[in-house]
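[job 4471] stage=fold_predict status=RUNNING
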Amino acid sequence: MISFARRIPVFYLYFFSIVICLCLAVSCKKIDDNNNVTFRFSYPYISFDTVFTSIGSITRQFTVYNPSKSDVKTTIYLAGGNNSSYSINVNGNPGTYFKDVAIRGKDSIFVFVKVNINPKNQNNPFLVTDSIVFMTGSRVQALKLYACGQDANYIIADQGPENLRYKVVAGEHQTVTWTKERPYVVYGWAVVDSTGTLIIEPGTKVYFHSNSGLWAYKFSNLEVNGTYSEPVLFRGDRLESWFNEDYAQWSRIWINEGADVTINNAIITNAFVGVQIEPLPTNDGPIYVTDNIIKIENTIITNTKNSGVISRFLNLDMTNCLITNNGGCGLQLEGGQFTMKHLTVANYYMQADRSAPACYVTNKVALYNDLPMDVKANFINCIIYGRNETEIEVEKDQGANAELTLQNCLLRSKNNATYFIECLHNEDPQFTDRSKLDFTLLPESPAIGKGKPNIEVPFDILGNSRGDFPDIGAYQFGK
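[job 4471] inference complete, writing structure tokens
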């Protein structure tokens, strides 16, 4: 009988021997506890933007790189231990202490970290620090962790259907004031009820969770009393810088019929819609329209996924406002009466193609099966401009009246309509830096000195005097 070994060609015996030796070499590779190994981290430290207390942060990720040729073992732990505000995850395992974590030579591992800060019952932000320690033999390295904690007033929805959860923040015949001492964080809809009054003082910051908003219910009262130096801020509750590119962090400011609303010196940003004004929809009767006028002044409405302002049926006056970077229209006006003075409606939306014009005016309401509704709109000293060939569009229906005038405005439009009075057409406004949303005017701007004087708007959005020769738009050029 010929043995099995003799039937295998000599070449294969050599080949198998080499493979076995290589496998043994790999499996027996020494774990080097060399104290001189210094890890490299993908960041010099880990920092978080302001984190509201009791609300966890997003998760940050970094890599730990072993530059040596040898595999090493290291112990990783939070310096603050179980009392730390931070938590870490190493190679998919959560914890605060990890012993003998292997990192192969010339390779790396992932570490994830987040922070959840306990309230401290104080108004000012406070710093929360810790370190992630890496101990290899007697060598110790530490990666610093930084976060800014902020106590807040939390508005948590406690009633309503699942798709419209809300909390009444000012009940009937009740006056409530929000102040700047601590920010307000809203989950769901914060509702001002009929005959209730919400006053928001200068410098107040209101942050909205996803799908949340501020709702001025019919016949309510809302006063937003910001100043140039202390505007009122409305934005989403994720403060990490990369969320600035999320243009639908929260829903909108929603205003119903009969509501007495003034918004002065506010910044409204990163909502699906900035401000939406309309009668409360009903299933059992006609839409109820009121004659009161909603006023928005010295306000910036920016970075919206849909339109900046939508107004249906009701009446709106806007003065010294910037409306920009909107995925829909800047102004979407469907029925009602509108007086617009010194607006800059500049739509250079950056995230996607946009078919809607910067300003759309119509006497029919598409949401209600093209229901006809009289519209009267008067624009004075406004810039309406953007990337589209036409940024002012007017659509008329025979079933209702439509009166429109644009006087001393700078427009981008293919047409020169009869309601354009002493307007500038298709002349670049020469904004300072539209990529940075800076819509002040350069010295060569054609809008300088071309506004209609004596229209009772003596100061611009920044508080600068307009003098005897006002510029077109929200900003007066300052030499």
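[job 4471] summary: The chain is about 5% helix and 45% strand.
[job 4471] exit 0
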